Amino acid sequence: MTFSNSSDKGGSRPESGSVALRLSLRNARRQARDYLVYFATIVMVAALIYSFNGLIFSREIRNLAAQMATLPMMIVLSGAVVIAIISWLVSYTIHFMLGRRSREFGIYVLIGLENGQVARLFFLENLAVGGCALILGILLGNLFYQILRAIVLSLFGQAYTFSFAFSPGAVGLTFLCFALIYLFALLRSRRRIRAMKIHDLLCFDRRNESAVIRTGKKRVKVFTLSLVCGLVGTALLMAGSLLPGIIGAGCIIVFLYGFFLSFASGVPAYFDRRPEKKYRGQTLLVFRTLTAKLATMGTVMATIALLFTATLVSEGFGQVLHGLFYGRARENSCFDIMIGITDLRLDYDDYLDYLQEKIPIESQYQYAVRQGENGQIREYLQENTNYYSYHDRDLVMAYSDYAFLRRMLGYPQVPLEDGQYLLHCRTYLGKLLTRYTRPVPLNGQTVSPGGVHCEPLGQYGWEVNGSDYILVVPDALAEHCPINHRLYVAMTAEPLSEDQYNHLREIRKERSKYYGYDNIIVRAQEEREAAAMTTMTVFPLYYLALVLTMTSATILTIQLLSESGRYRHQFRLLEKLGMDRHEMVMTLRKQFAFYYAMPAIPPLLIGIPLLLYLTSLSEPGILVPPAIIATALGLYLLIYLLYVLLAYNSLRRSVLPE
Q1: Sheet architecture: strand order including 519-522
Q2: Distance between CA atoms of 87 and 99, rounded to whole angstroms?
Q3: Exposure pattern of 286-320 as b/e (b: 16+ CB <10 Å)?
Q4: Using alpha carbons only, what angle is made at residue 128 by residues 124 and 129, rounded to the nearest 5 degrees?
Q5: Residues contacting 619, CB < 8 A, separation 6+
Q6: DSSP result, 72-92
Q7: Highest-scoring range by mean pLDDT, 18-22, 373-377, 530-534
């Protein structure tokens, strides 16, 4: 078939356009594997955007607590960061697909199409893919939203009922965000195609990332400098100040890019000096494939490692905040109601009148927390741990009061012999106080240690059962100690509502005009506040971490699956040379493991020390650092390994001979 260059309206353009359209559809079908990853990525992008937009427009979620009023703002702020990342992902995938189709487009130009027509074909083709992805993404996003809604409602103790309904506001905002992201990337690609020459189109998919560092001496220097920057950057981030943190973040970025650029160009030099290692087993094949890949995408690998670092920090920080909010609530509110009074002229009549009228009380008790003669246990704790107290003296409780509180909370009774004292403390002080064996002077007598107990007893905060610990002594000794403050505690038949809690605060506000400021702790309110803070801060952080992981793993997978043809040719050649299937499977696994481990290991080396530092910033006893780090790493690796397994199974079926 030949085409004329005549300007005749009935000439070559319509015929060449129809041929190009048929070729485009045929080649698109041939590249279904690449498009499947691309299409799935766009669907997930739309689903994630819609699911969190659903939270923004959910009146049910916003009405759960007054503290949730800023939830839309928090999600919008995190969404702005996420949209920037998703924009880069969509732009990258469309650019990648352009590279995969560039030779085909060059042929279209050779047979008579103009660049503008080719650009329009690519634009319309991807616009159709994006439109289908948006529709499926909104459907899938509604399911994601139902999951998020169920989690939020469970945090607040609310019943969840499934209701598959679309929010017009969420759909509209999702469409707007998606259109801006997608159209921007497509228009960039369209302008690029219109400006490219035939040679550029035919050779576009062969362009590789040039080696930035070419000489061995420079490689060694850059590699060493990058490691130093990594150590310095991690230390500065752990300093906890704004300016050192900014400098530290810059050092981390230098480390990641310097590491991957020098590593990619330095591996061949390493094996050239050690030929005995190069030819050992499958080392040559594995590392030759790895270095060839890194040589063409060293900058991309560094960017992915940076995203993984942000993922780990986001998940870890989310775990820190979650543990902090619920740890405080747990330590602060073992009783349904606790009211502390420091002004000893006051009684509880104002509160009791309301409680007895409006709230069903199952058990209640009033007692006094008293002052000891000195602060020797406080001094011991300050010398041996990160402890701070607002009291100069150790606080004391009578044994009869302590025994009644244990019955209220359902704890087993513990004996107290004459001449002894018990220590009740928060868990983090338990081991340290168990080693404390000094007697304590009290009203002209001395009492010796009789045991340490660590069940929750409301010991976090002010005007509570001691400042993280309390001495329990016989009643005869306690009654002569001066009173520090009085406490009222109660267990209720059902949790207090927010309106009931607010009414107690109104009583306190009225009393504070004439007397001291009472301390009111309501377990239901503590749990509501923890749930609200978790929803406002932890959810956006997890959302960001999920998008970062998805972005990074998607790019890695697209790059790997795009090389399936080359891998298939490689393993068929190895089969002809005599390699059995077991050896080919082991070789593929090693190549695969190194490829996916390279961008994942540096973030672990940076993230773990940083998470340890973050856990140390909270109040003592609130967080358990190993649990925080294990959970963050578990979430990070779980999502990543899911992508790895899916990509490995796909690549194995595609490239290994039957």
Answers
A1: 440-442, 445-453, 420-425, 469-473, 395-398, 361-371, 483-492, 337-341, 519-522
A2: 18
A3: bbebbbebbbbbbebbbbbbbbbbbbbbbbbbbbb
A4: 120
A5: 328, 460
A6: HHHHHHHHHHHHHHHHHHHHH
A7: 373-377
Q: Are 390 and 467 in contact (CB under 8 A)?
A: yes
d(CA 548, CA 559): 17
For tokens 């490692």, the residue is 305
Query: Is the Cβ–Cβ distance between 50 and 147 less than 8 Å?
Result: no
Which of the given ranges, 72-86, 144-158, 290-304, 417-431, has the highest pLDDT on average?
417-431
Whether the Cβ atoms of residue 406 and residue 514 lie closer than 8 Å to each other: no
Q: In sequence order, which residues have a C-beta less than 8 Å from that of residue 226 and are 6 or more positions away?
A: 254, 255, 256, 257, 258, 259, 262
pLDDT higher than threshold 60 for residue 30: no
- pLDDT score of 225: 87
User: What integer is the mean pLDDT of 526-543?
Assistant: 81
CA distances for 328 relative to 38, 290, 323, 411, angstroms: 44, 48, 8, 21
User: Does the predicted TM-score (pTM) go above 0.85?
Assistant: no
pLDDT given for residue 47 in this prediction:
87
- Taking the C-alpha atoms of residue 552 and residue 537, their distance in angstroms, rounded to an integer, is 23
- What would the mean pLDDT of 620-631 be, rounded to a whole number? 67
Structure token digits, residue 120: 């329009």
- How many Å apart are CA 439 and CA 522, to the nearest integer? 36
Higher pLDDT, residue 259 or 140: 140
Res 9: pLDDT:
41
